[in-house]
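I wish you would study the pair of lines that follows with an eye to the fold:

===
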Amino acid sequence: AFCGDHSPRQKVEAVPEKGTCCIICQEALDDDHPSFCTLVCPTCQHAWFHRRCVQRQAMCAGRCFQCPLCLDRQAFKREMLRMGIHVPNWPWQLLLCCSCAAEGTHRGCSHLGTSAQSWECEGCAGPGA
């Protein structure tokens, strides 16, 4: 947590035009300049966001987090991390059923550790297996 004097600030010259909306929720921005609650993509400087909206996007996108306008990943993610946006690193490894290969599960969703090399679906393993 930072006080107002020490919170990170974006180093961009961009200022949103009057009536600019958050590119994610399409509602009016809270401020008319970059601030703690109003963020801008450092690459295109045309994509403006509410902090809460870009945080929700980061939580859903995980490793695929990018600017929804210019699609930049590296500079966008680096700047959002610097500004305090949490970007999870989801382990989206998909394991297919080792018996039928017709069903699959995400390693993380099924709470399988990294040592698990195989998984069997309920249809093949039977209920409760």
Remarks:
- The longest strand covers residues 38-40.
- The chain has two domains: 1-90, 91-129.
- Residues 61 and 87 are 8 Å apart (CA to CA).
- The mean pLDDT is 89.
